[in-house]
Amino acid sequence: MIIIGEKINGTRKAVAQAIRERDETFIRDLARNQTDAGSAFLDVNAGTAPEREPEDMAWLVGTIQEECGIPLCLDSANPSALRAGLEIVKNPPMINSVSGEKPRIEKVLPLALEYGTNLILLALDETGIPNTSDGRMKIVDRLVRLAMDGGLKEEKLYIDPLVTAISTGTDSALITLDTIRRISSTYPKCHITSGLSNISFGMPLRHMINRTFMAMAIQAGLDSAIADPGDRQLYEVIMAAEMLMGRDKYCQGFSRAYRAGRIG
Ligand code: THG
User: Fold this and answer.
1) CA-CA distance, 48 to 140, in Å (whole number)?
2) pTM to 2 decimals?
3) Does residue 96 have its Cβ closer than 6 Å to ligand 1?
4) Domain extents for the chain?
5) Cα separation of 65 and 28, whole Å?
6) How many distinct helices (H) and strands (E) make up the chain?
7) d(CA 61, CA 151)
8) Counting Cβ atoms within 10 Å, is residue 165 exposed (0-12), middle (13-18) or buried (19+)?
9) Separation of CA 130 from chain center
10) Which of 18, 82, 157, 252 has the fewest CB atoms within 10 Å, i.e. is most exposed?
11) What confidence score (pLDDT) does residue 48 get?
């Protein structure tokens, strides 16, 4: 499981404050902890202030890179903020994300092609998130074709089927799971990623719902997640589900994690 650590996100109150106050220690701790907990990438979202976002993104990237060498996943809809991060990022990064919306295709996709980054493709367009896996696949098909025509290999594409709240739609999880299955069979070389926690919005016992959905999504073909690797019980479910899916030869990964005290 390719975990993209989610915690450096300016829409979270404590992170927004740390960005405002240029609190390097706070950001470096988040980077260190998520790296040690097993992230492959760290998501970096500078928040929503458009005029400050490029500067804030550059500060975040610089601060994180002083602490650890982990690859970064630059999370912004703002092409200027993405460029500010891309110009100083050291390891091959990921861009989060391009969608089927015209301005994103015109401004974000060229950045990914210019820098040859990994790229998250979102299954939404101007009309929103389609209510069916057919609708989502249509957008995904188009984005994969555009990215590959531009020279990105399938291995660099992370397709996000998108998750909507189960509290607002009885079939929310089923639509996402069906989309994951279809992406997995149509694009076996692409990665499939998702921020799964939206599923439980508005419900009690959110973490338990998130963990259950994680196991189901892994069974459907999810191989990456934007998540908190420090959530111990979530990490246990990921380790167990991957082992049960035949991705952990001789159960070595699971056993090693147990002996290291990462699970159990
Ligand atoms: N797909 C893609 N990118 C994404 C998402 C997605 N980026 C943002 C989001 N969804 C995933 N990131 C986060 C980051 C932090 C939290 C949740 C998702 C988080 N939530 C706290 C919680 O759940 O308890 C509450 C917020 C807080 O701490 O203030 O930490 O779907 N491509």
Assistant:
1) 26
2) 0.97
3) yes
4) 1-72+80-88, 92-230
5) 9
6) 10, 8
7) 26
8) middle
9) 20
10) 252
11) 78
Question: Which residue minimizes the CA distance to atom 14 of ligand 1?
Answer: 6
Q: Quote the tokens at residue 228.
A: 């908190």
CA distance 225 to 160: 9
Considering the domain 92-230 in this protein, what is its CATH number?
Answer: 3.20.20.20
Alpha helices by DSSP H, listed for 150-261, are: 172-186, 206-220, 232-244, 252-259
Burial class (CB in 10 A: 0-12, 13-18, 19+), 21: exposed
Per-residue pLDDT, 14: 97
pLDDT given for residue 154 in this prediction: 98
Q: How high is the pLDDT of residue 250? A: 98
Tokens of 49: 């202030």
Residue type, 241: A
Weakly modelled stretches of the chain, pLDDT under 50: none
pLDDT tens digits, 168-182: 999 999 999 999 999
Instruction: Scan for tokens 């994103």, then name that residue.
Output: 104
> Among 78, 98, 226, which is best to mutate for testing ligand 1, by the most ligand atoms less than 8 A from CB?
226
For atom 11 of ligand 1, the residue with the nearest CA is: 195
Q: Measure the CA–CA gap between 57 and 10, rounded to whole angstroms.
A: 10
Confidence (pLDDT) at 6: 98
- The atom number, within ligand 1, closest to the CA of 160 reads 32
52-56 LR contacts (CB < 8 Å, sep 24+):
53/78, 53/80, 53/81, 54/78, 54/80, 54/81, 54/83, 54/84, 55/84, 56/10, 56/19, 56/81
Tokens of 190: 């692409």
- The pLDDT assigned to 196 comes to 96
Separation of CA 212 and ligand 1 centre (Å): 17
Q: What is the pLDDT of residue 50?
A: 84
Helices (H), 4-51: 13-20, 24-36
Residue 231 amino acid letter: D
